[in-house]
Amino acid sequence: MAIGTAGVRDTTAPGRASPGRRPGRADWVPWLIALAAFAAYTTISLFRYVQLAPGSWDLGIFTEYVRQLAHLHAPVVNIHGSGFNLLGDHFQPIVGLVAPVFLLFPSAATLLVVQALLTAVSVIPVSRAAAARLGTGAGRMIGAAYGFSWGLQQMIDFDFHEIAFAVPLLACSLSALLRGRVRAAAVWALPLVFVKEDQGFTVAAIGVLIVVMSLSRARGDGGDRAALRWGALLTVWGLAWSLLAIAVIIPHFNPLHQYPYWTDGGVLSPGGAHPSPSSVLAQFGHSPVPKLRTTLLILLPVAFLALGSPLALVAVPGLALRFVSTNSAYWGAGYHYNATVMPIVFIAAIGTLARIRAYRGLPAGEGGQPLLSSWLDPVVTRAVPALMLGIAVVTAWPFPLSDLWQAQTYQISPHIRAEDAALAWVPGGTTVEATLTMLAPLAARDDTYWIGIGGNPAPRYVVFDELDSGWNPPPSDPLTFVEQRHPGVTYRQVYENNFVYVFRRVGQTSP
Q1: How many CA atoms lie within 13 A of 30 on its CB side?
Q2: DSSP states along 255-298
Q3: Cα 324–chain centre separation
Q4: Is 478 helix (H, G, I), strand (E, B) or coil?
Q5: If I label 203, which of 22, 291, 366, 375 is the partner at 20 to 30 A Cα–Cα?
């Protein structure tokens, strides 16, 4: 038996055309929306890469991670620290799926294209869920509104991150759950635990939701029992993997043999103190304005309709972990942290609209007239989806999508050309230390270190961007600065242009 998401029986039987759709005719518009999203996001991310303007060191880190796995090496990422195994930072084995593609296209750009593709693919299940419950037109409008929602834009704009894999998995899982396909929902949710250690809590939330929904509709038939089993499996599976990753796997690979985010960001234990319910609640309520602003901004693309569906509860674990942190970067709308919330709130909003539409068909009593007047159906199936699409259009201006029509997005400055020339001086397969902007291209072919970390071994090459060195004030003599970082080693300048330098190691100084 299909399980509805809001206490309403699923009236769409297997083999029957969904409301508002013509049977036997495939709708290709969602694929065109996905293609448009892929083109837009690929353009944004690749031109940022060409301009050597990363948001952080993350693209370089993941590039080196994938390169190591592609060559069947341990995921040692020297950018993070000399000899640092990245599994000691986060549990993200699913990123290894990029490795075969990286062998064919060994570039950091490969990761950006994969991320844009994963994001675009997630449009299809969201659009199909809306079409199945609200009609073809609604499916198209909601699919477009979702595909260009601000949370997805922010992820694309901020390098590459493992949560790109969570976006389509969540979209497929919750889309299936909305349509009563519990087994499919569970199967799509299971791999989420391999995206990042905190995603297990989201998987458990999906499991608990399935169990609660099953119990609320308990009729003693096999369908509900099967749903209970799947819900219980997801709950145990998600919690077990998150706890295993946090308590065992990550500390095993971490140099300090600990989960670094207990204290870094104060997830549950600020300052290393023992967590208590009162301290956790106090931290959750700390700085409520930015947290409330982010929550409102998350709900804005769906006109706050997600609040009408229990599916929105799937977002609670992720938001709670962010808001209980002492790291204010987790609270806001920046970076990539809100990407995984987008498929949740959009499918929850679809569930709310489907619930309203189903209520319309209930009898009003003796008169046998619809409970609500006939104007409600076009509001639910056309006006509200159009509103969501309008919100997406309006919010495009302050978010990265607007970069597409800005001339500076496509301009290559003389300084960037100087950096490109500097990169060409460094051969493949060597060791190199670099400033932030040039980490990712080098990480695709060399053992790369970040100049912002002390204690790196003396590399064969050093690539230094004086205008974006990360040092304030920047060193007045870059060669002396480099040799002071690596005592006992001498370097020779082999390239200099537009404040960009390349130094090559030439020998050891006398002891």
Answers
A1: 23
A2: TTSS-GGGTTT-SSSGGGPPP-HHHHHHHHHSSHHHHHHHHHHH
A3: 19
A4: helix
A5: 291
pLDDT, tens digit, for every residue of 216-258? 876 545 558 889 999 999 999 999 999 999 999 999 999 999 9
Give me the DSSP letters along 387-400. Answer: HHHHHHHHTTTTSG
The answer to whether the beta carbons of residues 323 and 331 sit under 8 Å apart is yes
What is the Rg, in whole angstroms, of the alpha carbon atoms belonging to the chain? 25
Q: Which tens digits make up the pLDDT trace of 434-444?
A: 999 999 999 99
SS3 507: strand
Q: What would the two tokens of residue 269 be?
A: 């234990």
C-alpha dihedral over 201, 295, 136, 128, to 10 degrees? -20
- What are the angstrom distances between the C-alpha of 181 and each of 5, 218, 342, 489? 11, 16, 21, 64
Instruction: DSSP for 413-465, please give it.
Output: -HHHHHHHHHHHTSPTTSEEEE-GGGHHHHHTTSEEEETTSTTPPPPSEEEEE
Separation between Cα atoms, residue 410 and residue 396, nearest integer Å: 18
| Sign of the CA dihedral running 163, 31, 189, 304 | positive
